[in-house]
Amino acid sequence: MTSSVLQTAIKAHDDFVVAHPEQFRLSVPLWRLLAKGKPVAPEELASTSHRPLPEIQAFLHASDVRIDQAGHIIGQGLAFQRECGGLGSSAGRGHGCLPYPGRHLQ
């Protein structure tokens, strides 16, 4: 039997997804592509999600994504950059760095 705390957490997650369907319509295909272990071109996300490229570009600018120097998506949400030492990193101790430099979309 599932605990009441876990049931509450699952319901809160489900409610959040239902309240933000547009965000998850593109996030889920992006997560699946990123799970393959390679940077994702915006065109590849557009093709996979069956959405036009301008919609993908708008999503990328409105989302917390990490983009590499070639313009490919390398992460979404909390991510660390190779330039360790700044906010959100391990202050230069070498922990939590991506293996390739990234930049945040502005």
Keywords:
single chain; 106 residues; mainly alpha; three-stranded antiparallel beta sheet; 45% helix; disordered C terminus
How would you describe what is shown here?
The protein is 45% helix and 8% strand. It has a single domain, classed as Winged helix-like DNA-binding domain superfamily/Winged helix DNA-binding domain (Arc Repressor Mutant, subunit A, Orthogonal Bundle). Mean pLDDT is 77; it is low at 83-106. Helix 3 (42-49) crosses helix 4 (53-62). It is built from 4 helices and 3 strands, in the order ααααβββ. The protein starts with a helix and ends with a strand. By secondary structure, the chain is mainly α. A hairpin with a 5-residue loop joins strand 1 (65-67) and strand 2.
SSE blueprint and pairings:
Blueprint: H1 4-19, H2 21-34, H3 42-49, H4 53-62, E1 65-67, E2 73-76, E3 103-104
Antiparallel strand pairs: 1-2, 1-3
Helix pairs in contact: 3-4
The total strand number stands at 3
Task: Point out poorly predicted stretches.
Answer: 83-106
Taking all residues together, what is the mean pLDDT?
77
Q: Name the CATH superfamily assignment.
A: Winged helix-like DNA-binding domain superfamily/Winged helix DNA-binding domain
Number of domains: 1
CATH-scheme architecture: Orthogonal Bundle
Total count of helical runs of at least 4 residues: 4
Terminal Cα separation, in Å?
46 Å
Q: Strand pairing plus helix content: what structural class?
A: mainly alpha
Query: Can you identify the CATH class?
Result: Mainly Alpha
